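FW: tagging you since you asked about this chain on Friday. Here's the raw sequence from the shared folder, copied in full. Didn't touch anything.
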Amino acid sequence: MNCNTRPRGLALSLMVAAVAAANTSLAGAQSGAPQSGAMQPGTLEEVVITGSFIKRKSQSDYASPLSTVGREDMDAMGVMTLSDIVNTLPENNGAQVYSDSFEQARSAGTTNINLRGLGVTSTLVLLNGRRQTMTPAVTENGEQFVDLNTLVPMIAVERVEVLKDGASSLYGSDAVAGVVNFITRSDFEGFEYQLGYQDNKADSDELNAGLIFGAHGERSRVMLAMNYLERDALPNSAMRDDYAAKQDSWSGYSMPSKVLAFDGPPGPPIRLIDPACLDGSAYAEFPGLVRRKPDADVPSDGSCQLNYGYFGDIIAEAQQTQVFAQADFDMNDTITLFSELGYARSETLIHSTPSQPQLSAVRVPAHHPDAIAIGGGDPFAGSASNSGVWFGRPLGAGSPANEDDKRYEGFRAQLGARGDAGAWSWEAAWTYSRNTATNSRLDIITDNLQRALNGQGGSTGDQYYHWLFSAQGLNTPDMYQYIFGEFGYTAEADQSVFDAHVSGDLFQLGGRTVGAAVGVQYRKDGLSYDFNERSEELAFNFFGGGEDFSGSQQVYAAFAELALPLADTLELQAAIRYEDFDSADTTNPKLALLWTPSQDWSLRASWGTSFRIATVFQQQSEFITPQTANDPLAGGEEVTFISLLTGDPAQPLKPQEADAWNAGVTWSPGDFTASLDYWRFDYQDYITPEAPAALLSSNPSSAQIERGPDGNAVKITTYYRNAGSVETDGVDFSLAYLADLGGLGTLRPSLQGTWILNYDLDDPILGAIDGLGNVNDENFGDSNVQLRANLGLQWLLGRHSAHGYLRYIGEYENDNEDNATVDDWARLDLQYAYQLEGLFGGREATTFTAGVLNALDEAAPQVRNSVGYDATVHDPRGRMFYVSVSQRF
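HL: got it, structure written out here
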């Protein structure tokens, strides 16, 4: 059953929490800001930071690795969206950031985070310390995640805190690899606008506009923010020079097409090859789009291949609108009411091949006029069925790209109260969030196409569909309306959460205060999919369809946290959380030590367990997607097939469990800061989908593989399993120095990076795999780059500022291509900003900014796959210029 809690109205007077803004240096985490344990210039009052419910004076009082991206950092990096921030985090590995047409078939138009390469569902995303529902638009592996595009307006974000350690002991499920907490500008006062424009070298424009308003009364505060983004598509065809060499998107299901009769005389099948392929006219008319099928061992039969990647987008066309409001009201000196209200809408238009390949076998009868035109009066002489199987697609070369419309909406409402009672403080809140996804696109109705090939198609029931390239003009619009239908669905995920906690001073121990926090939480997650009628009938050739389903799961949880000073310079921090789900329960502890022997030094160590429960989608859905892989029984060639992914009722899924360790040190003498952390994750009972490509390569005769008339794989059924494990460890490092140049201003060089030491996988089909430094396309792992680092240099002088970042991504291997290395890549970002006296009566300076991302126009390294690069690692857009103006009143 779906969660039936629904908001009854929108109230502008909803009250919101004032989140104390910690002082964040201009350089911030992205330019080597001090990590957890570092002594930072701080806020005097105690605040709550990500990873603890006990109030502390600064991040230096916390023993887990925590980095911060502040508002000034975002401006310096020239980011326009939350996804731009994610793409610069060295600890992020394998996230889906850009909306390409192939790697995100179901989730294009969304953005997620993937800390440590442990999966997009293993990073918990919070907004002001509280959960947001996951999007129903799942990844190709059927994983749900929080969509950043529908989370909060960019202009409303004060800072982003990244906890790079397991945190289920406080936050529960999903906080395996860490927590990313987006904290809003809840104490903003005044009015501010920001306008930004960005242009790609291929003229893919992006416009971003943001507004924020805040007002403070004697007992109340309110903040309202909104963002609008409009982005043009960046088609693959515009950047073919950069990525075409390894863009492996050639399909033998082409237009022009072919017909093969396998039930004829002994020997090779009877072949009817489109003359436009045999005489080469199709290649000449559409260079780069159509080619003759190459075969190194057997002479080509003269048939065509279609480059379906030519029609796709590197970046999809998109429009995003986000609105967010916060307000709070002091009822008296000790109690404050607070609330949040947010709405977001994201629309993405995906371009793809004009029509998908006809994978379900349809037959061309001998009486079809196209067959007679090629094969004569008896085109299938000797064939038992007197017909042949058609290998093609109704629309291909010469037709416009298909447009796949994806729409997402997000809603969030929160109401709560907080207060103080002596040395203790308390807080309780109810939060409801909902995310919907709507998808629609054209696909072939297999039965209708077969009727049309038999001469029984169209509205009159007596028309032929003509498959010959030269006869396409004979197909009427009525015929295409007959053989195509709209595949589509509307999906909704919602979440209701009530949580409450108290924190404060427990008692004195040796003259030192023992801090504590205890809390409870109730959470209910719901998910439903509503397919249109044709999709429910599984009428479609390529996208299949699905049955409507809905489900929910709920959890009751309680936690406790303790900060125990063992000496003046040594503190033990402990936490434990119990969660009781419908299907399982789990207890997760965490212990940490913080030792600060001097003002310049701090050392930290932590250990804890974390977990992730199986989502409703993984337990109850049937996930149908088109995929491609190399088929050993097809001579090792790449084939396209339908993949059905579902839960196995015979083997219920258990919670995934992980142990996480961290040990770090920070040295901060004066204006210099150096930080080093060793981390390790041991992730067991990992919920993984059996990989169709791995099953096809390791056991091509499996009963889970269905094959077509030509012997090629056409459908593979796979299951979610608690069969995998991931063991990974590495080192995070950062350096920063602030130099006073006197009359020449200040200069801040910095370095931040992540070096991964191991990434070992236990694949349910392939067994033990060393996934370190590999694309991991043939297993359940994510792209894993051993070294990622950001080198920054910032200069400030009066009204002038300049920023430079050199972002480095090391080389790694591609398991989808023999002996192939993905080259290392360095991107140079430059920016200059100048502040004028406030224009139009503004009380603060007007800032004009100009910059260039990827100033040297370094194309992303080429990778053999459908798009020609690794969309989860590199930014494929090339050089981008941007300008922006902002002012506060």
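FW: The chain has two domains: 29-241+314-354+403-447+480-888, 242-313+355-400.
HL: agreed, and Residues 1-44 have pLDDT under 50 and may be disordered.
FW: great, closing this out.
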